[in-house]
Amino acid sequence: MSVHLTTHFNIPSVRINKKLLQRRTTWLMRQNSVADHEVSILLVNDEEISWFNSHYRDKQEPTNVLSFPFADDKDLALSTLRVNELGDIIISVETALREANKLKVSFNDRLTWLITHGLLHLLGHDHERSEEDAHAMWDLENKLINQLQSSRSTQMTQLAINVDHVATVRNARGIREPDPVAAAAICELAGAAGIVVHLREDRRHINDRDVRLLRETIKTRMNLEMGANKEIIEIALGLKPDMVTLVPEKRKELTTEGGLNVTGQKKKLEKTINSMDKAGIPVSLFIDPESKQVKAAHAIGATFVEIHTGRYCDATSEEERENEYRLISAAAEEAYQMGLRVNAGHGLDYQNTARIAALDTIEELSIGHAIIARSIFVGLDQAVREMRAIVRDASTIF
Fold first, then answer.
1. C-alpha closest to that of 354 among 323, 312, 320
2. Distance (Å, rounded) from C-alpha 224 to C-alpha 349?
3. For 174, left (φ over 0), alpha (ψ -120 to 50), or beta?
4. What is the pTM (predicted TM-score) of this model?
5. Residue among 121, 198, 298, 308 flagged as catalytic
6. In the chain, which residues fall in CATH 3.40.390.30?
7. Per-residue pLDDT reduced to its tens digit, 318-377
8. Is the C-alpha dihedral spanning 378, 382, 388, 389 positive or negative?
9. What does the angle CA 249 – CA 383 – CA 222 come to, to the nearest 5 degrees?
């Protein structure tokens, strides 16, 4: 089985998640019992698909998707060959993007629907044959899309562990145990893809000794959360973590209460980003799931955004949680299309993480308090492994 995906367009504002589309197509082929076949997908612009329409269908306009079976009833010679080739699906990304905006769905989801539609044509379904055939094809499309949405993913979302609260427990007694440096090592051995620490101005948990030793001992990636103040910036430039995440910081808050107001702090944040860029340190901005914050993060040169999931986690009704989930999904999609890399975190626990982990545009989740709290009962190694399993299972197509 093989899915060949080729792009024939030059639209800088459009990014195609090839691996995601190939994996979804593979899943669709498996569901339709053609897992041993091959299919080719060609993504073009309106001009090129108009040419195909004119050349093969005598229509002088663009369309969203075209399908060309490898062997149809008109080519009996090809149909006798023992080749497991289904044919070609051609999609206009310009039309798909317009349709996604009109239908208020993500671009990747619209492309997935068009691939599903095209694949069913290759398998012999035809909505133009009769009204009965149209209803049957529509029902099958919806069934496949619904099944896919319940089990879809792209490459596995990574799990980074925030060990701040190990330091919180240590500092409560003013002693040396438990050590966040040792905790980070256990997390990595249990499968964490990175370690997150927040060096606050008041040093309420992580301190200078911690970040220095963690930089020397972390084997995966060190993500230093920090406010954009002069002292911490200088420490970060000397430390050179694998990345920094700029977060809002208030002296009286128990934990970070929301995302950065990037639109209101463009000059200050851009200056910090430029300083980090010169030192080779990528910067992530911790933002609420709002389009204006995504656009501002992109405008000032951030490499990543980390979508704040706190309101989703704190929702007190299903309706409220569903609305917050849609905002997170839309913000992550918009950021991805702009070329930003996307992480997410805050408040995620063993009950609410899976749905966020299944979002195709999110690379990594940052989780701390829930795992450290769970470790009191089952141990840190087991707590990390349990959360990693949730993330893994949410982002795997079965």
1. 312
2. 21
3. left
4. 0.70
5. 198
6. 2-149
7. 999 999 999 999 999 889 878 889 999 999 999 999 999 988 789 999 999 999 999 999
8. negative
9. 45
C-alpha distances in Å from residue 105, one per residue of 63, 327, 333: 18, 12, 10
Residue 305's identity, in one-letter code, is V
Cα angle at 379 between 374 and 381, to 5 degrees?
A: 100
Please identify which of the residues 94, 117, 188, 225 carries the catalytic annotation: 225
Q: What are phi and psi of 160, to 5 degrees?
A: -110, 140
Please say if 99 is a catalytic residue. no
Q: For residue 177, what are the contacts with CB-CB under 8 A and spacing of at least 6? A: 170
Query: In a 3-state reduction of DSSP, which class is residue 140?
Result: helix
Q: Where in the chain is the domain with CATH 3.20.20.70?
A: 158-394
Q: How far apart are CA 18 and CA 7, in angstroms?
A: 9
Residue 75 has a pLDDT of 52
Verify whether residue 37 is a known catalytic residue: no
E strand residue ranges, the chain: 2-8, 38-44, 65-69, 85-92, 158-162, 194-198, 222-226, 243-246, 283-287, 304-308, 341-345, 364-367
Confidence class of residue 153 from pLDDT cuts 50, 70 and 90?
very low
Query: Position of tokens 């002296």?
Result: 251
> What's the token pair of residue 80?
């006798």
The residue whose two tokens read 């702009």 is 338
Tell me if residue 369 is catalytic: no
What Rg do the C-alpha atoms of the chain give, in angstroms? 24
Catalytic residue selected from 125, 165, 298, 346: 346
Number of H helices, E strands in the chain: 17, 12
pLDDT per residue as tens digits for the range 168-218 = 999 999 999 999 999 999 999 999 999 999 999 999 999 999 999 999 999
Average pLDDT over residues 239-262: 84
Q: Which fold has domain 2-149?
A: Collagenase (Catalytic Domain) (3.40.390)
In the numeric block, the tokens 């010169």 are attached to 278
Task: Quick: pLDDT tens for 47-100.
Answer: 999 999 988 888 888 899 999 987 655 455 545 555 578 899 999 999 999 999
Length of the chain: 398
Q: Are 361 and 336 in contact (CB under 8 A)?
A: yes
- Write down the CATH superfamily of domain 158-394: Aldolase class I (3.20.20.70)
Report the C-alpha gap between 184 and 157 in whole angstroms.
Answer: 19
